[in-house]
Design goal:
heterodimer, A: 290 residues, mainly alpha, 13 helices, globular, B: 282 residues, 81% helix, disordered N terminus
């Protein structure tokens, strides 16, 4: 029994302070991001989430340039980008993905520029890889208070706006008829989205943050149709995938090529959950047809 | 990145720079043409996902030791099929997002395996058009011809299915979607090794979106889209050559400028037109 346990969990896993920190930050971020993600999937704004993550990379790399913590860069640039998307008209369903695409194109260009300036102007080699792919094990404990504070703000927006946001996401017309200010609610949601994406970008990498945002939420919405149950399921899946990913990455030190990236495991687990939920739905439909 | 030797502005059209101009023009032709359908079908996310995800293919190729072009081809086609199949059941944007992040996750894994330095990663993502050799020229040209001929063959059914998805009885929408995804994958394979993923994405969105604000006629919009794309790329090369800044930055900004001009035109033209009409009547 002991031997099996040690084969799954390498000795020293729970005692390592680096692992404890990664599990704390990763867990908090996973829960918050997945919660925001449920609304993102319901509103059909996955592309906006993905774009905010990519644009966040521009901020992350410019933070390196001025010597600030990347998280500040991620937060600032994704909030600015959310504002720009709102201006070019992300709220309208028609032409929404064009608006996102245009903003993303500019953001990509800026990322390229800042990464170029970072690698030429300073000796911060490795910065591009860290910003783009993240490294949960490389987070310093000094960023913990900031991560927790931003997570609390994001969760607060979701809790305060829960009912109007749910109604606006399900049916904007009905919400407008009930006198809910649709546009301000949408803007507040975009800010929450930008914060969540920035947090996820800082932990699992700018271009992989979409995995935590969209994957668990889409899986949950396939499993259940009730909104708050979907929120709980999404948070649970995100937490499980993140922690299992950390465990596997820790174990992978003894695999060929020593030390596989955490982000890879998290993304793969998230996709596996989504595919599995599809199988379940199909089985149920077949059973009903029979 | 910066190890390409650049001369004074008078040499902008000589030597290795000739390759850059040819390649960039060909890429703009293909990007502008396929982008017309990207905008029409509302597939901006797909146009972002396939090139961006295919970067994993390049990383995989460097680990296994095969040519970059092969790796990109396999991954971009795989991504296109993945998006197509996943989107059959479930939301299209979710399918696209998950396919993309999975490919990127694989990319992160391969990058951690490979011994290559990170400047090759950034040049794949953001493009380095100024260092193209002549053996990279031919595969790109051949794939461009394949892409444009496929587009010519598919022009009518694709246009019909994109404008009126319900009325296209004789064509299976799933087959059309797959054909379109494969087209994007082909364009990706041909452009990413030479100009990076950012550039082709910007070219497939900005110029066609601008063109559609200027005209509603499909043929004219296609031509206009290609023309704008070529102008954007030419301007970007010239400035990139002068400043040493990455070309992706200029392509992204110019594409957004073209789109903004298009929006202003679409906003102002009807008002100006009706005012002129009123003036003529009175």
């Amino acid at each position: 029994m002991q031997a099996v346990w040690h084969a799954i969990v390498e000795p020293g896993f729970f005692a390592s302070s680096q692992v404890q920190l990664a599990a704390t930050i990763g867990g908090v971020v996973a829960i918050v991001t997945a919660g925001v993600g449920v609304f993102t999937v319901m509103r059909g704004q996955s592309f906006a989430g993905e774009a905010l993550g990519d644009i966040g990379a521009a901020g992350g790399s410019s933070a390196y340039l001025v010597g600030a913590a990347p998280l500040w860069g991620f937060v600032a640039s994704s909030i600015v980008a959310a504002g720009a998307m709102e201006l070019v008209g992300i709220q309208r369903t028609r032409g929404r993905d064009l608006a996102t695409g245009i903003v993303l194109g500019v953001g990509f260009g800026l990322t390229a520029l800042f990464l170029y300036l970072t690698t030429t102007a300073s000796s911060a080699t490795g910065a591009p890889i860290v910003i783009l792919f993240g490294s949960l094990f490389g987070i310093s404990s000094s960023s913990l208070p900031l991560v927790l504070a931003l997570s609390a703000v994001t969760a607060g927006i979701l809790i305060v706006l829960y009912r109007p946001l749910m109604l606006v996401s399900v049916s904007p017309e009905l919400a407008a008829a009930r006198g809910i200010p649709v546009r301000p609610v949408g803007v507040a949601y975009l800010i929450a989205l930008a914060l969540a994406v920035a947090l996820a970008a800082d932990t699992i990498g700018a271009i992989l943050s979409t995995a935590l945002l969209v994957g668990p939420a889409a899986t949950a919405l396939r499993v259940t149709t009730r909104p708050h149950r979907a929120l709980l399921v999404a948070a649970g899946i995100a937490l499980a995938c993140t922690w299992l990913g950390i465990l596997l990455a820790y174990d992978s030190y003894y695999w060929p090529h020593h030390g596989w990236p955490v982000s890879f495991f998290i993304v793969t687990l998230v996709l596996a959950c989504y595919l599995a939920s599809g199988l379940k739905g199909r089985g149920r439909r077949r059973a009903r047809a029979a | 990145m910066a190890d390409v030797v650049r001369g004074p502005p008078s040499q902008m059209f000589s030597g290795f720079m000739v390759h850059a101009w040819i390649i960039a023009t060909v890429v703009a032709l293909v990007g502008g043409a396929i982008g017309f359908f990207v905008v029409m079908r509302g597939s901006a996310f797909v146009a972002h996902a396939i090139p961006n995800g295919s970067f994993a293919g390049a990383a995989a190729a460097s680990v296994v030791g095969v040519s970059t072009l092969l790796g990109l081809g396999v991954f971009s086609l795989g991504g296109a099929l993945g998006i197509g199949l996943l989107a059959r059941r479930g939301r299209r944007d979710v399918a696209t997002a998950l396919t993309l992040v999975f490919m990127l996750g694989l990319g992160a894994l391969f990058v951690s395996f490979s011994v290559e330095d990170e400047s090759s990663v950034t040049s794949l993502l953001f493009g380095e058009v100024l260092g193209i050799s002549s053996n990279e020229l031919w595969p790109t040209l051949v794939l461009a011809v394949v892409c444009l001929s496929a587009l010519a063959v598919l022009w009518r059914p694709l246009l019909l299915a994109s404008v009126l998805p319900e009325s296209a009885h004789r064509v299976d929408p799933f087959k059309i979607e797959l054909a379109f995804l494969v087209l994007v994958a082909l364009a990706t394979t041909m452009t990413v090794p030479v100009v990076g993923t950012t550039l082709i994405f910007s070219l497939m969105i900005g110029p066609p979106a601008a063109a559609r604000s200027f005209t509603a006629r499909p043929g004219l919009a296609l031509v206009l889209s290609v023309v704008i794309a070529v102008l954007v790329v030419w301007g970007a090369i010239a400035l990139s050559y002068q400043t040493y800044w990455p070309i992706g930055f200029f392509v992204g900004s110019f594409s957004a400028c073209a789109y903004t001009l298009g929006r202003i035109w679409a906003f102002a033209a009807p008002r100006l037109g009706s005012r002129a009409l009123l003036a003529a009547q009175s």
